[in-house]
Amino acid sequence: MKKQHKLLELFWTFFKIGAMTFGGGLAMMPIMRREVVEKEHWVDDDDIIQILVISETTPGVFAVNAATFIGYKIAGFWGSVVATLGVVVPSFIIISIISLFIVQFKELTLVSYAFYGIQAGVSILILRAAMKLSKKVHFNIFATAIFAASIVVALFTGISVIYILIVSAILGLLYGFLNSVKEAKIDVSNPS
User: Fold this and answer.
1) Which residue, of 36, 43, 65, 120, has the fewest CB within 10 Å?
2) Does 148 lie in the same domain as 101?
3) Residue 56 vs residue 123, higher pLDDT
4) Which residue among 136, 151, 182 closes a domain?
5) What are 74-101's pLDDT values in tens digits?
6) Within a 10 A sphere around the Cβ of 170, how many other Cβ atoms?
7) 15: left (phi > 0), else alpha (psi -120 to 50), else beta?
8) What is the reported pLDDT for 188?
9) Which residue from 38, 32, 37, 1 is spatially nearest to 16, judged by alpha carbons?
10) CB neighbours of 44 closer than 8 A, spacing ≥ 6?
């Protein structure tokens, strides 16, 4: 495939994702997964999980980070530029149009009802994406405990999710370090 054709296809795919995403970054996950994993076969579910983790832990908007990472994986620097532009341009166009009519638009009762419906739909999209991606996560007792504790802390305290992510990452690093030390001791005590 010619590079220019691939870049155009990358732009168009992320343009569609950006145009159909309501509700922010995580709401785009099922749409992005369908387009780049199932339809285009550019990445797999493991890549999506890695992109999700990296995009959520780096500064910036999730949609932009995810588009940049996938674009880079597909076509290098120019792929990241084109994918990022593709996901941003629809929002820019829509916001520009809405800003022209914001006062009249905001006062329409039907618009507020539509947003209530969109919020409910987005919640289901996020839940569905989480269920599909959770099949790729390797749960053990430690991961399950971190998962359960994170949910409890997020739901019943005012602690920011960012701090929960940081603490979870540190605990994961400690767990991995302790496992590698434990395995190293077993290898030393059992020379073959």
Assistant:
1) 120
2) no
3) 123
4) 136
5) 888 999 999 999 998 988 888 888 777 7
6) 10
7) alpha
8) 64
9) 32
10) 37
Q: At residue 31, what are phi and psi to the nearest 5 degrees?
A: -70, -45
In which domain, by residue range, is 170 found?
138-192
Q: Give CA–CA dist 182/143, Å, rounded.
A: 18
Q: Are residues 69 and 114 in the same domain?
A: yes
Best CA proximity match to 83, nearest among 108, 129, 51: 51
Provide the token pair at 62.
């999730």
Do 152 and 180 lie in a common domain? Answer: yes
Amino acid 124: pLDDT: 81
- Coil vs helix vs strand at 162: helix
Same-domain pairing of 142 and 87: no
Q: Are residues 131 and 145 in the same domain?
A: no
| Stretch 28-41: mean pLDDT | 85
Q: How many domains does the chain have?
A: 2
Furthest CA-CA distance within the chain: 78
